[in-house]
Each structure stands twice: as C-alpha cells, then as structure tokens.
Amino acid sequence: MSEDKEREEIVEWFRQLRQTEEGVAPPFDEVWEVARSRTARSRSRRLYYRLGTAAALFALLTVAALWWQNRRQTHDVTVVQMASISQWKSPTAFLIETPGQKLLKTVPRIGDGFMDMKGLNPEERR
User: Fold this and answer.
1) pLDDT of res. 58
2) What is the predicted pLDDT for the residue at 9?
C-alpha cells in the first residue's frame, strides 16, 4: 500500500509542477512564431553574409588582377625607358662645348708640334 501512496504523491507533485510551469511559460503558438521569424532572419542574414563575401572576394580578385597587369606594363615600359635614358642628350650640351675641347679629348703624339694640331692653328680654321 505504501507503494501506491508513494506513486500517487509523485503523480500529484508532477501535476502541481505542470500547473506551475503552465502559468509561467508563454503559449506554444507565440514561441513557434518567434522561432520561425528568427529562422527567416537567420536565412536573410546568411544571404547577406554570402553576398558580402562574394563581393569582397570579387573586389580582391579585381584589385589583384589590375595590380598584376599594371606590374607587367611597368616592367615593359622600364626596359624602354632604360634604353631611352642611355641615349639621352642634354638640350644644353652645346653650351658646354668649348673651342679647345678637341685638344682635351685627343692624346698628343710625340713628335707632333703644338701648332700642327687641328683646331689650334688659326689658318686652318679659315
């Protein structure tokens, strides 16, 4: 008999607990609607995250491609610029040329006189 009494007490305790929780817990329909709206918001957030990630990846790849293409063009131009710089001549170089410059650029030979050199003899200039 004591077992039946114990079972009834346990059943009564669970009944009281259920009634207490029913008074505190919100209705199931409200909980279900909140869960559905969160799921819908979660889906839209995931969509925005995916679109944002795809846009960022596209921007990154575009910048990388432009940088790579610009790097190739810069390298080609540098070779051309190096060639043109080595052949460059100052527009004012003629101002530095002096009348006796040929004398400074030639090596004198033993046995030649000073007046025999070209450019220094006044009669040769005429």
Assistant:
1) 95
2) 93
pTM above 0.70, yes or no: no
10 Å CB burial of residue 120 (0-12, 13-18, 19+) is middle
Contact partners, residue 53, CB within 8 Å, separation at least 6: none
User: Which of these, 104, 102, 105, 107, lies nearest to 118 by C-alpha position?
Assistant: 102
Intervals of the chain under pLDDT 50: none
Q: In angstroms, rounded to a whole number, what is the distance separating the alpha carbons of residues 39 and 55?
A: 24
What lies within 8 Å, CB to CB, of 125 at 6+ separation is 119
Per-residue CA distances from 36 to 27, 29, 39, 90 (Å): 15, 11, 5, 79
